[in-house]
Amino acid sequence: MSLYQLEREGQVEELKSVIRTSDNPEVQARAAGILGDFDEETLDGHDVVTPLVGLAQSADDDRVTAAAIDALNQLGTDAMEELIAEMAGLDLGEDQQADWAKAKAFAKALTADVPELRMAAANALGELGKTDILPKLLESLDDSDHRVRARVARACGRLEDARATDALIERLSDPKAEVRREAAEALGAIGNRQALTALLDMFDDERAPIRRIAVGAMGNFGNSRPVEGLVGALSDDDASVRRTAVYSIIELLSNVPTDQSHEIRETVVEQLNRTDDQSVLVPMIDILEESTQNRQRRNTAWLLGRVADQNSSGYGRIVEALVETLEDEDQMTAQFASTSLAEIGGQQVESRLLDVVDDTGYDENVRAQAVFTLGKVGGERTRKRLDDLIDQTESEQLRKKAFSAISKLGGRGVQ
């Protein structure tokens, strides 16, 4: 049976046999990679870590060693800990000292001959969160392999230790874009003034990809410091930089403390309304359609109602995205979508909300929210439809909402 068939059928034990018995390095490497890519459900009840650890230590071919390490890295920190512990001769228990032993072992692995092992060690150190090993990580920011440098920069960002700022700033001029991007994102996670200054300096770079990296990293800040710079980036000559600025603004609004978010939102709205570039609306719609994070969706739903109107490019798509958001499980997100639909208004908003009211496939709460919003945006057509709804519906909630909405539209017709 081919490796493709084994992968397709989830034949874990057969693949374990391949990595133990095959004398073909390419086959062993491919089998190891497949095991690392399997999901938890497929691997349930199968020990793949032990054979992969054995392969990583015993393989004569560097390709096989690298594949085994990559597979263990894919399986998570626990799998990598077993490899490092085996190589270091450590017996890692469950007590507090074990974490320090793991950190020291991973720090030592940063100097291993195999770059894949150094990459995995950097990942694990970032996950462990032990800031005492930061000096060792910083030494590896000069690793000869750019993949290692990138992973080390990412680990520094996870530690959020200001001591890494200077070294990360140096990596902003790394010859490899991947390293520059990870260093910028790490600086954004650290979020101090020195990091902000360094990222803002990149805004002046003549190369749009460099500016985009800096703008993208700004969303990682947990404070309001980058707002002015991000608002300025909304006027960048490059459309991709402007779109990235919108993503970062939404991310920033999701990260900052609640007591700061209102002021920041108002500043953002003011600046967005000054730009004639309609392309900044596209990433907002994308977030509303694709994001699974409540705070991102909440802020986006709110923001769209303040920066879009009936003349906006993509008006129909905006309306559709907001109508669909009325079904959001997060009540506040659904409420913001309703408010934004009322702010935008227009015939298409009225028509789509009437469709929701008439469609019994929607949850009653969603239909009631649509009725409430129609009270703010509807016209004579809505007044008549709600008048009929009052007489026809068996839902007390819909009837109450319809009475409230219709009173705002001139009251019921002559009965």
UniProtKB/TrEMBL annotation:
Question: Which Gene Ontology terms cover its molecular function?
Answer: oxidoreductase activity
Superkingdom of the organism of origin: Archaea
The UniProt function text for this chain reads: Catalyzes the hydroxylation of the N(6)-(4-aminobutyl)-L-lysine intermediate produced by deoxyhypusine synthase/DHPS on a critical lysine of the eukaryotic translation initiation factor 5A/eIF-5A. This is the second step of the post-translational modification of that lysine into an unusual amino acid residue named hypusine. Hypusination is unique to mature eIF-5A factor and is essential for its function.
What is the name listed in the Swiss-Prot or TrEMBL entry for this protein? HEAT repeat domain-containing protein
Q: Which organism is it from?
A: Halorientalis pallida
